[in-house]
Amino acid sequence: MRVCEWNQDYSVGVTILDRHHKRLFEILNKLFTLMDEGSEDRPILNVIDELIDYTHYHFEQEEEMMAKIAYPDLEQHKILHKELIDQLTDFAKEAQNGMAIFVAIKIATIGLEWLKNHILAVDHKYHEYIKAHGIEVNI
Ligand SMILES: [Fe+2]
Questions:
Q1: Domain-embedded: residue 89
Q2: Ligand 1 centroid vs 76 CA: distance in angstroms?
Q3: 38: CA distance to ligand 1 center in Å?
Q4: Exposed site from 8, 40, 77, 103, fewest CB < 10 Å?
Q5: 4 found inside a domain
Q6: Total count of domains within the chain
Q7: Is 43 within a domain?
Q8: 96: domain range?
Q9: CATH of residue 51
Q10: pLDDT (tens digit per residue) in 35-88
Q11: Which residues place a Cβ less than 5 A from the ion ligand 1?
């Protein structure tokens, strides 16, 4: 089930980070598919773990890139990343207590909105910074 699709509007001008964002959309699609199928808890818990692990990895890479280019809003950006990780971690704990499908609905809808808004409103600011300063990003 495909609920969300990455498109060029989401590009942050850094190929590897675009690839990460595409993968996050894919993981959310997996969650929507499991919800659609009325899945048991275990597969849902696995995808929630995958989402958290991959989000961690992506944020680390993105923050490393921002540090490398001396991006001035790095600290503020990190706070927003941490807020999402904390929220996902709370949801994961809730899902482990059973009826994971109901938690999956919250994670998928909140996660998708967060991701879209974050890329367009927050990540795009470093994209503007990179463009404005003619920076060559190598990660
Ligand atoms: Fe970000």
A1: yes
A2: 10
A3: 31
A4: 8
A5: no
A6: 1
A7: yes
A8: 29-132
A9: 1.20.120.50
A10: 999 999 999 999 999 999 999 999 999 999 999 999 999 999 999 999 999 999
A11: 123
